[in-house]
User: What shape does this take?
Amino acid sequence: MSIDSVVGFTIREIRTGKGWYAMDLADQVPISRSYLSEIEHGHRLPSIGMLADIAEALGMEVSELWYAIYKNLGGKR
Assistant: This one.
């Protein structure tokens, strides 16, 4: 799985775990629903700043989001 796919998968996994629709997260960031969809499907890789905005919208520290991405890449700890 590519890094783009893992980043998108992780964001989608956290979002759906909160019971949010994509529109809910897109409105919180704010970004367009289509841009978020491209990220979640691994077609676009967000900038570090965008990842920080997404983490904040999800109510987490950016380091927590990075760690979740790391774990989904197969990192062990």
